[in-house]
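Case study.
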Amino acid sequence: MTATALRADGLVVTYRADGRETAALNGVSLELEVGETLGIIGESGSGKSTLAYAIARYLPDNARIAAGSIQLGGRPVEALGGEALRDLRRHDLRLVYQNAPSTLTPTMRIGPQVLEAVRLSGDAKAGRAAALDLLRRVRLADPEAIYRRFQHQISGGERQRVLIAMAIAARPRLLILDEPTSALDPDNARAILDLVGELAAELGAAVLFISHDIETVAGRANRLMILKGGEVVEAGTTAQVVERPQRDYTRLLLDSSPKRLAAGRPRPRGGDTTLLSAHALTVRYRRPGWRSWLGMDGGAPVIDGVDLDVPAGRTTAIVGPSGSGKSTLARALAGLVPFTGTIGVDGRGYASARALDAGYRGAVQIVFQNPDTSLNPRHRITEILKRPLKLSGLRHGRPEIEALLDAVRLPAEFARRYPHQLSGGQKQRIAIARALATRPKLIICDEITSALDVSTQAAIMRLLLELQERDGTALLMISHDLDLVRATAHRTLRMRGGRLVPAEA
Amino acid sequence: MREILRKLARNPVGLAGAVILSVLALVILFGPLLAPYDPTGFHVTRRLEGPSLDFLLGTDQFGRDLLSRILTGARPAILFGIGATGLAVLAGGSVGVLSGYAGGLVDEAIMRALDVVLAVPALLFTLLILTLLGSGIVNAMLAVAISFAPGFARLTRASTLSIRERDFVAAAIARGEQHAYILCREILPNLLPPVVVEASIRIAQALMIGATLSYLGLGAQAPASDWGLLVAEARDYLFRNGWLLAFPALAIGISALGFNLLGDGLRDLLNPELDA
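After joint prediction, the assembly is written out as follows.
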C-alpha cells in the first residue's frame, strides 16, 4: 500500500518582467509516492528550479502560480498563506539549495543554526545534544568541532552535509534537492548523494531531485522527468527513460553525457614529439603581511616542482580535486602568474613569466572556465577577435574575423554583437575563436565546459576535437570531470597538493 | 546613446532628475538673457519687498530683483559643482586606477596616505586648503576638487581591483598586450558606470559646499550673484524678508536633488544585471 506524497496538476507558473508575463512552467503534472525519488532533469531555462520553488511555495515576488494545483500529503498547498504556509515549511517540506555558502549565516556558528532548525520544527526545548545528534547522522567526522565553527571554516562538502542535517531536522515528508552537488568534486558528490538516499529511506520521505545531469540522477531516482522550456518532454521509470528514450531531446541529453563522447576522439598525430616541457615549475602565492613585503616569506607553494611534458597534436588532461593546484598550473603555463623553474617551447627555454615573449604567447593560448567573465562586456565581438590577430602580426580585416567565427560554427553577423547578446555556449565559442586567432600550437582549456549545460558541453568538446583534427593543435585539459577526461584525453595526469602524481590505470 | 535615453524614459527617478537638469541647463545657458532686470540694477524705492507681479521673487536690501540674481547666479554655482567634481574625477580617478592596477607596496602606500586625507572632514579640509591658497572662486573650486579626489581614488581603485581579476584581463595578458592597452581599453570602459554615478552625486555635494564657501565669504565675492552669496547676504534680513533666503536656498536644493536623482537613475541604468 503506497500513499501519494506529492501531486501537482497542470501547474503553470509565470514571471512578470517589464510589464509582460512569460510562462516558465506550462502545464506540468507530477505524482510522487512516499519513499520514492523523482529526478527532474533539464538544462538552464527548462523551468526545473521554478518547479521546485513553486512546490515549496517560495517563488520570487514577480512570479505567480497562474493555474494548477499542488497537493502535499493530500492537502492542497498552492494557495496557503501566512501561518499555514510557515507551518508547511517548518514541518512538511525542506529544500536543500545548490549554493551552500550563501545559505548558511556567516556570522553565526554552525551549531546554533542547526539548533534553530530543530527548535523551529517542533521541539522548542531541544538542546545542544539534538543538534550534535543531527550532525552525527549526516556523518560529519567531528560533530563537536563543526558545531563551534563558522561556515567559512568548513569545506564545501561539510556545508552541504550541514544543510542536509538542517533539512532532516523536521523529519519532512518531502525533500527537495536543487542541484545539491554541482559545486562539489565527484568523490564528495557521490558520498553526499548516497547519504541523502539513506536518510530519505530512513525517514520515509519522498525526494524531488533536480539536476542538469542525467547520469548523476539516473542511479538514484526511481523515476525521471525531462523538462524543456517549461514543459515535460518525457517522463517514466528510470529504466524506461534511459534505455528506451522516446524523444529526440532525451536522446540528445543522453548522448551529451561525457561517457558517450569518446566516439569522436581523434587519432593522435605527428608522432611523439614534445611540444612544451616544464621543469621544476613552482608557483608560490604571497601571504599577506609585512614579512612577504620584505622578502622574508616566499609564500606557500601552490605548484611544487612540477615536471610536465605536453606532446604535440594530442590531448593531455590534468585532473584533481579542488585546491590541488591544477588551475594555477594552467595559469602559470599561460604566463598569468609568476613562476620559478623553466618552461620550454620549440627549443627555447623561459625561466620566468616576464621572459615569456610574443612567440610563446602566440603559441600557447588559454580558454577560461567562465565565458561571462572572459569576454570584456564593453567590447564588440569584432574587437575581441581583432586584437589577437593584430598582436600576432596577422591580417585582421573582416574576412579573417569571419573565418574565425566560421571555425567555431558561428554566423558572421555575430561580429557586430556584444557578449551579453550571446548565450553561454556561444560566448565560450568566441573565447575559443579568440584563442585560435594567434594560430596556437597548444590551447590550455581550464574547465571550459563546467559552466555550461550538458548538451552545450558536448557540442563545445566536439568542436575542440574537430579543430584539433583540422589543425593538429595540442590540448591541455584541466578538469574535475573524470568521465569527460576519459572520453577525450589521450593521456591523463593527476594532481594532488601541488604535485603531479602517477595516474592510476 | 539612443538606447540610454529610451531606458531613461522608463526609469521615473532618473527621468525626474533628467527633467530638472534640462531646465537647469537652459538656465545656465540663457539665464542672463531670461532675467527680467539687470541683476545689479538698484530699485531704491522698492527695497526688501516680497514676491509681486513686478518682482516675481521679491527684491533685496538694495532693491535688486531676486529672480534676475538667481537666474544669473546659476551659471557660476552649477559650473562650480561640475568643475570641482570633474577635476576630482581626473585627479583622484587616475591615481586610484594606477594604484589598483599596480597593486602591492605602491598601492598600499597610496591608499594609506589617502586614508589620512579622508580622515579630515571634507569641509574642514577645504577650509584648510583655502587658507593656504587664499579665497576666490577658482581656488575654492580647486580646494573642493582636492578634498573630493581621495573618494574617487578609493572608488576607482576598488573597481579596478575587481576588474583586474576578471578573465578578460587575464586573456589580454596571455596574448601579450601592453599595460597601456589593458588599462585604457579593457579596464577603463568598465569603470565608467560607477564613476558616472558617483560623480553625479558628488556634483550635488560640491554645489552645496560651493554655496557654503561663498556664504562664509571664501568663494565668490560681492557683488556677484552666486547662490551661496545670495544666501549669505540674506542672513541679515532674515526677519524682514524671509523670501530672500528661501528662494536661493530652494534653487540650491532643487539642483542638488536633480543631480542626486539622475545619479540614482544612472546607477540602475548602467547596471546590466537590472537590464531585463
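Observations recorded in class. The mean pLDDT of chain A is 85. The CA atoms of residues 407 and 433 of chain A lie 7 Å apart. We will return to this complex in the next lecture.
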